[in-house]
Write a structure and sequence with these properties.
With 310 residues, the chain is α+β, with helices and mostly antiparallel strands. The chain has 2 domains: 32 residues; 253 residues, 4-Layer Sandwich (Deoxyribonuclease I, Chain A), CATH 3.60.10. Helices cover 27% and strands 28% of the residues. It has 6 helices and 12 strands. The strands form 2 sheets. A 6-stranded mixed sheet has the order 3-4-2-1-12-11. The longest helix is centred in the first third of the chain and has 31 residues. The radius of gyration is 25 Å and the shape is globular. It binds calcium ion (3 copies). The site of one calcium ion has 5 residues, from loops.
Length: 310
Amino acid sequence: MGSNLVAYIFKRTRVLVLGLAALWLWCGCTLEKPQTADGELEREKNEQLNVQRGTLPVTDRTVKAIAWNLESDGSDPAVIAEQIKKLPSAQIYAFCEVDPAEFERFEKACGQNFKAINSETGRKDRLQIVFDTEQFELVRKMELHEMNYRRRYRSPLVVHLRHKTNHEEFLLMTLHLARGKPEIRQEQAKKLVEWARDQTLPIVALGDFNFDYDFHKKNGNEAFKIFQRDNVWMWIKPKTLIDTNWYDPDGDNVDNFKDSMLDFAFVANSAKRWVKQCEVIVRQGDFPDDKKTSDHRPIGVRFDLPAGLR
Ligand SMILES: [Ca+2]
Ligand SMILES: [Ca+2]
Ligand SMILES: [Ca+2]
C-alpha cells in the first residue's frame, strides 16, 4: 500500500513538473519571439522600453548631444566656458544666445578635437553647433533664412553630419525661435513643419523653441500646437519634466513661470524610430540665476544610430 502511494505521488509529481516545464518553455519562447511580423520594429520597441527604464547600455552607435541657451547678455563667458567643461560628455553641443566674440572660447571648451559651425544671423544671440571631428564628418551646413522674418531674428542652423564608422547620415538642427512676438514664432513653427516634411534624411532638432510647455496643463503655446501638426516632428519628451528657464523680472527670487519648459529635442523622418531619450541637466546651484550664469538649464539628448544600414 505504502509503495503504491509513493509510486502514485511520484507519477503525479512528474506530470506536474513536466507540465510546468512545458508552460515555462512556451512562455519563454513567446516572450523572446517578436510578436509582430516586423522583428526589427519589436527590437526597437524593446530598446525604447530599456531606455525608459534607464537600462540601455551605451554602444558605439550611441550619440550624445547637449543643447544650451547661454544667455549672451546675462552671463559671464568665462564662467559659462568652465561650466561647459564640467557638463556630461557629449559628441555634439548646440548652443544658442552666443555672443560671436565668444565663439572660439566655447568651441575650445567643448574639447580638443571639436569643430564649431557658427551662425551668421541673430546679432549677439547667435547659434553654434560644435561636434567631435573624430566621430563625425561635416557634409554640408545651412542656415534657414526663409524662417527668419527680415533677418531680424535667428535663422535655424543645420549641419548634415556623417558618422565616421557606421556612415549613417543625419541632419542636426539647432534653433532659437522668436520670443517676444507670438505670431513670428508661430510662423516659424509652421515653416519648420513644412521644411522637415521635404527632407529625406533623419533629423534631430534641439534648442530653445520658446514653446512654454506647461507641466500642469500638459500643453504649450500656439506655436507648440502648430509644431505638432501631422506628427511630422516627434518630441523626445523627458521622463521627468524639469523647468528649463529661470524668469524672475520682479526680483522676488521666485520663478514667474514655474513648471514650464522652453528647451526641447525633436526628431523627424526615420530618426523617430531610433532609440532616443532626453533629460534636463540639473547642476547644483544652477537656479536661481544670476548675472554670471545662464537663465536656462542644458538638455541632454541620447540617440542610437541604426546599425549597418548603409
Ligand atoms: Ca544670468
Ligand atoms: Ca521657469
Ligand atoms: Ca518672480
